[in-house]
């Protein structure tokens, strides 16, 4: 019995592997010989992640402005025109107002007298679009007065110059329109109402004059006029406008 011997030659070298690649596109894939998937091209299906990138930016802090009003000590003067007073009221230089300092609790008014209530107020306005009205109110304005007085007012700035010359207290009591220096709104104060820019903080002096009409109806002695019952207000307003 003869024996057939088959010689098997090992063609695989441990240091060299020969691979024959056969690439075929099938359904958008690349195949190796033997059917093993090498990679997916995703030309017709699947998803890509869209690119995105972010970068940090330097931020900023927004600071609120300021609106405030405070009162300094009030004072009262007899400024009757026929008294020939020589003392000038401090802080009122243009025009100068002369009078004699009085105490409203003890001074007795008679027909023809004129008295001035001097009311300094400290205004702070800080804000690029900050505009406010400076107004005067009192229960005696616009109502029947105990004494038939005639009320007028003037407003002086921190340099002693009148920004509102002496005039009757207007309806609503608005004396001036104030706006903070900055972009502003370029608003007008309204008919007969002055507008003034305020650079941070400034002292304004509101002067209220009360004249006891010598031609009015006589009043009984001891009747009172509530000149001390006064209130100054600072109120923000918003109006259309452009930068100044």
How do you describe this structure in short?
With 244 residues, this protein is mainly β.
How many helices in DSSP terms?
A: 0
Compute the gyration radius: what is it? 45 Å
Mean pLDDT: 75
Q: How far apart are the termini? A: 123 Å
Residue runs with pLDDT of under 50 for 5 or more positions:
1-6, 11-26, 29-35, 37-42
- Give the helix/strand class: mainly beta
Order of helix and strand elements from N to C terminus: EEEEEEEEEEEEEEEE
Main beta-sheet annotation:
7 strands, antiparallel
Give the overall shape: elongated
| Number of strand elements | 16
- Secondary structure: helix percent: under 10%
Percent of residues in beta strands? 35-45%
Give your account of this protein's structure.
This protein has 244 residues and is mainly beta. It has a domain at 66-216 and 226-237. Helices cover 0% and strands 40% of the residues. The chain is built from no helices and 16 strands. Strands 4, 5, 8, 9, 11, 12 and 15 form a 7-stranded antiparallel beta sheet that branches. It has a 4-stranded mixed beta sheet with strand order 14-13-10-16, with no helix packed on it. The protein has a 3-stranded antiparallel beta sheet with strand order 1-2-3, with no helix packed on it. The protein is elongated, with a radius of gyration of 45 Å. It comes from Xylanimonas allomyrinae. The chain crosses the membrane at residues 29-51. This is Alternate-type signal peptide domain-containing protein.
What's the SSE blueprint?
Layout lengths: L24 E2 L2 E3 L5 E4 L25 E6 L3 E4 L9 E6 L2 E3 L1 E3 L11 E13 L4 E7 L11 E8 L5 E7 L5 E7 L14 E4 L1 E13 L18 E7 L7
Parallel strand pairs: 13-14
Antiparallel strand pairs: 1-2, 2-3, 4-9, 5-8, 5-9, 6-7, 9-15, 10-13, 10-16, 11-12, 11-15
């Amino acid at each position: 019995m003869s024996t057939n011997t088959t010689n098997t030659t090992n063609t695989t070298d441990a240091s060299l592997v020969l691979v024959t690649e056969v690439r075929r596109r099938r359904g958008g894939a690349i195949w190796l010989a033997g059917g093993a998937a090498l990679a997916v091209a995703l030309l017709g299906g699947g998803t890509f992640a869209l690119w995105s990138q972010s970068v940090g930016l330097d931020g900023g802090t927004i600071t609120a402005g300021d609106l405030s009003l405070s009162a300094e000590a009030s004072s009262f003067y007899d400024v009757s025109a026929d008294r020939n007073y020589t003392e000038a009221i401090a802080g009122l230089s243009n025009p100068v107002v002369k009078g004699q300092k009085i105490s409203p609790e003890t001074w007795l008014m008679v027909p023809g007298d004129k008295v001035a209530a001097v009311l300094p107020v400290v205004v702070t306005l800080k804000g690029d679009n900050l505009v406010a009205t400076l107004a005067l109110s009192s229960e005696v304005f616009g109502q029947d007065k105990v004494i038939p007085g005639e009320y007028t007012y003037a407003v002086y700035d921190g340099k002693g110059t009148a920004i509102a010359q002496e005039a009757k207290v207007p309806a609503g009591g608005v004396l001036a329109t104030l706006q903070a220096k900055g972009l502003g709104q370029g608003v007008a104060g309204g008919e007969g109402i002055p507008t003034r820019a305020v650079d941070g903080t400034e002292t304004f002096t509101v002067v209220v004059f009360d004249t006891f009409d010598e031609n009015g109806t006589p009043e009984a002695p001891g009747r009172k006029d509530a000149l001390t019952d006064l209130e100054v207000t600072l109120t923000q307003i918003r109006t259309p406008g452009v930068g100044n």
